[in-house]
Amino acid sequence: MERRVRVIPATVAENSGVSKRRKSLRVAAYCRVSTDDEEQITSYEAQKDYYNQYISHHEGWRLVRIYADRGISGTSMKKRTEFNQMLAACRKGRIDLIITKSLSRFARNTVDCLDTVRELKGLGIGVLFEKENINTLTESSEFMVTLFSGFAQAESESISKNVSWGIRKSMENGNVPIQYSKLLGYRKGSDGLPEIIPEEAETVRWIFKSYLKGDSYATIKENLEAKKIPSPMGGAQWSIATIRGMLRNEKYAGDALLQKTFITDCISKKVRKNNGERPMYYVENHHEAIVDRELFQRVQEEIARRSSRRKVAQRTAKTEQGKYSGKYALTERLVCGECGTQYKRCTWRKNGKTRIVWRCVSRLEFGKQYCHNSPTMDEAKIQQAIVSAMNRLAAAENITEMITRLVNGTTVRWMQNTELDELREELSEISAQQETVLEKLLVNLENHELTEQLQQLTQRKTELDRKVEKLRREKQAASTPDPHTEALRMWLEGHPAALREYDDTLTRNIVQQVVVVNENLLRIKFYGMGEELEQKIE
Q1: Tell me: the pLDDT tens digits for 402-425?
Q2: 414 exposed, middle or buried (CB, 10 Å; 0-12, 13-18, 19+)?
Q3: Is the pTM of this model over 0.85?
Q4: So what CATH class is 180-305?
């Protein structure tokens, strides 16, 4: 028997998207504008009117819905609500064809565009791109979609680079964008710069001073909530992250650091912390400060001190004593004389009795591996020894001399230091040399030896400028009394009577360090005092 092939002709055009089973084509339209400004909103409305007329003029087409997103970027589909609703309707079999003006309206991400088109094609749903004249149900459509969507993505990347360049230039010019809703103490002033809100500014200063006094983030949080002071966002609850961020925020010192974070690319829009990958811009004296620069700097040093203390946690310590706790004054002040590791407060319970002791963290966590002979210290005995040391200090015969030294020590030190003057003198000499070399170069521009000499002088001048600025800041900071040193001076000037009881607050304010030499001896260092005071434990 002879094989025969009979052709059954197609009844529907290939690019129509009409199923045999369906006489009318359910059509949806998608339109998008990039911004929410008035011009773009007008464009958005015009697109809706256009598609209403366009679909009505096609016989057999029935408008299902016009999906439209406003103010949404085309590089990602995650936040395009209407677009995702349209895809959901497609998956439920409610749409046969989607029409849109161009690929750039549909998506500027090549991968997302192809994935979406392939999914819809698998469902038997075509996408008609008017500008490119592409129907995704045709055989050659995928190549054309890949080509044109690649162009659209490249356009987005180009726009992104131009925007980034504009932002970078704005940063270089010292233009600082500020989110006032998250910045306690400031509001936008009439000149466009931050303006201080007095009552909120007092809260900011109190937070800085409390931290410098020794309070932990948790303690500050509790005190703020107890005082019913609203958070920067206006809530009753404060977070430790908010307080930490405020203490690190240079804006409270009148400065601004720009580009702390950056967007990796225009497609993923992933935000990363800038760890040196991009340049930063530090704008000094941008606006009026709430806290003075010296106080801000001391707080940064205190933050660094608390986080950089011997972190036993680096050796997988279970107690995580690298984390600061402001609950007890002796925390991070009481250290082991053998290994230098801080002591940890422990509670011993035996036979219904409780005993508070302090133990070396290295010895506690690792036995004798890092510390061999550190003793366990009874808290009450340590406290009594500190009280005795304070009484000895206050009763010293040279009390007047000590107070004078506390007041004038840093000033005298800097008066005797000639390094800054020497650097400035060298800078003056280099500037004179630069002028001489420049005059010679004007006569002979092709003299490579002179050019190299000028480069070396310029490099040396830059190095000296940095050193001078560093020393100037150190001198400025040194001329401002440290709050702990000032607290000790005021206490000594008050001629206090002999202390009878241990005072945790006083210890926090005037004691810098307590070294456990052995079970019978402590070395106590007070703020502003060069020498340590040895105190026996009784």
Answers
A1: 776 665 554 444 444 567 777 778
A2: middle
A3: no
A4: alpha beta
